[in-house]
């Protein structure tokens, strides 16, 4: 068996090398660091250290990485995000005990020496020579702070971190020179403050405030003696002295700190002894990082905030710079999220659609006149497991959503608004047969659309046969009426009206200029539809959606944030006329199940071909919301399906999205003003009392002759058995 070497197993050569390394460094210090660019003490030997005079004179201190807080409109926290969990605080917000404890255990002569502790180095030299190794260091708090600056500057790059912490004489000399500069510029109290804010305390906690929160769920200013001693002891070896995983080692280390404080007369021996007898009592706050931890189901809203931030050059010239600022910038982002609205959305969703259902739902509510997004939720939670998803079903593709969903007949009010702006009377009647070919040709923005004899559309119910005027056709969602309407006014006014209302395709492509657009065959997102309908509630003025109220940086400075952009989309008379039409939908039409009690509301149902999607979009004067239900993969038709525990032969826009909208809006607006929607008188022509409303009225007794048939193909399209596919999209829905 080999004989064990003295000095912890190091050979004589190794011990000599270690001793010489420390001796050289000490010699440099004792010589006043007056090192020439080459030669003195051999420090400029090839590969050992750069010349002292060549080291830059100023230490570049990067802003400390801090956590970013995302708040709701009242200032309550939704979530926090960070690469390093840190909140910078002043010495005034740190317990005096932690200040004394860290100095006692890490640098007892901190207030007596300069940047370098010569006595400490000599003591370490002697101790290390006796042990044959490096059993005691001599770095001052100032030097440790400088080293931590190097580590902070390295970020999460493992190679740079290794360079910042490598045990070489070259790095030590660089550390010493910068320590001198720091001592001159900052002074002792500022150095101590910076050190306590930058150092790592284990368990993902950087800085004393994060450490106090992590281990004791309190602020740094509230730490008591034994808690402060515990945290100060962690710094030397965060893994070894981790009180969560190594409580015995941590206790011994804490008691060492307490005794050191007593030796230095920071506390009495009696205080130290009493504190040492106390068991460690942790109150752990688990790390909560990222939108996945957002409260009240606001993970998708949080992710939307992130997308807004990363896509806006206001917050950095490159995406990489913006991402770094998001993760490390210590920002406080106050959002438009209204907690009451958000809770109401999530409660309504949970009531009507289960997260493990075959289909999902998404709902968004915005404020007319400001564009503020008040709430955003969906049935499949934010995350990576089971029924969770990272896909935000409420927004466009470029903001983290999918390709969107056909809105069906919720698009018809856009056509009605375009027609009214062109001078069409709301009393305009059309024959509106059960089935008819698309009129051809139809004017587009760049020419004409020409159909063929196979390009036909039909109503949901065979008994839906006109003539109809606009009010009844809207209430019953009569397809053939609106096909005739868009054919009369042309496709271009409809396209331009949609654009003015901010209603665009979720995939970012331009709207296809085909007559079937009136039936909602082009995919859109709930946020787009909610903001578009808010135009009607706001007297014809559209305001783009916004989610951020304000942002302040780590220094409390306000940053420029995106603001809503408002524009006139239609006259107030047109908007008030649409209010009248859509009030009829919820009062005596397909959307009766969505109507609100005790306040004016208006809206429209929508159900697409083969029931791949069902919608309700509606509004009051102070809130506009859109609810979509369907399969995000566009595969499950909503026939013979159970949603939220309720079986359905067919899903209608009124019987599932409608009640979700009703309950969400009821809770969101509870205790808030209930102003009236401005309307205009519209004469009702004589009605055929024997006619039945279309399918969007919801479940009821079976109606004969139903059946629209066909498949909803990607990009639209449907067909009756034996009929060719319809050009440019499908029946759209009801």
Mean pLDDT: 83
Strand content: 5-15%
Count of β-strands: 18
Count of DSSP helices?
21
Major sheet size, sense and barrel closure: 5 strands, mixed
| Helical fraction | 25-40%
Shape descriptor: elongated
Structural class: alpha+beta
The low-confidence runs, each spanning 5 or more residues with pLDDT under 50, are 1-54, 688-734
> Radius of gyration, Cα only, in angstroms?
35 Å
Separation, N- and C-terminal Cα atoms: 89 Å
Q: Tell me the strand order in the biggest sheet.
A: 2-1-3-11-12
What can you see in these coordinates?
With 734 residues, the chain is an alpha+beta fold. Helices cover 35% and strands 11% of the residues. The protein contains 21 helices and 18 strands. The longest helix has 19 residues, at 12-30. Residues 1-54 and 688-734 have low confidence and may be disordered.
